[in-house]
C-alpha cells in the first residue's frame, strides 16, 4: 500500500435513538478542512458504526477497529514522536491527536495544541 488510508465513521449516524457523530473523527475532518491538500494525498474509507468493522479487521486483525485510524503507507516516515501500532504487518495510528501530529510532521501543518 503506497498511500496512507484513513478510516473514519460517517459524519452522522443513528445510535441511542438519535443522530450522533464521532468527536475524534470530526477533529480529523476539521484538520482535513483546514489543510485540503492532505485529503487529496490519502485514501479515506468510511466504516460502519457496528463492530467488527470489516475493512479494518481485514487489514489490522480482530479488535483493531477504532475510528479514526490511519493505516500508514509502506515506508511512511512518522517522525521521532509517533506512537505507531503494528498488526498483521501494517503500521497504524489509532487516535485523532497522533494522526494530526503525523500530518504536521509529514505535511508541515501546525501541531495540535498540547502535543
Description:
By secondary structure, the chain is of the alpha+beta class. It has one domain (5-107). The chain contains four helices and seven strands, in the order βββααβαβββα. The protein has helices at residues 23-34, 36-41, 54-60, 96-107, and strands at residues 5-8, 13-15, 18-20, 43-46, 69-71, 85-87, 90-93. The strands form two sheets. The protein has a five-stranded mixed β-sheet with strand order 4-1-5-7-6. A two-stranded antiparallel ribbon has the order 2-3. The mean pLDDT is 93.
Features:
alpha+beta, 115 residues
What would you say about this model in short?
The chain has 115 residues and is α+β, with helices and mostly antiparallel strands.
In terms of topology, how is this protein built?
Blueprint: E1 5-8, E2 13-15, E3 18-20, H1 23-34, H2 36-41, E4 43-46, H3 54-60, E5 69-71, E6 85-87, E7 90-93, H4 96-107
Parallel strand pairs: 1-4
Antiparallel strand pairs: 1-5, 2-3, 5-7, 6-7
Helix pairs in contact: 1-4
Total domains: 1
- Give the N-to-C terminal Cα separation: 28 Å
Number of strands: 7
State the major sheet. Answer: 5 strands, mixed
Structural class: alpha+beta
**Unreliably modeled segments:** none
Radius of gyration, CA atoms, in whole angstroms: 14 Å
Net shape? globular
The SSE order reads EEEHHEHEEEH
In what order do the strands lie side by side in the largest sheet? 4-1-5-7-6
Strand content: 15-25%
The count of helical stretches stands at: 4
Provide the helix percentage: 25-40%
Integer average pLDDT: 93
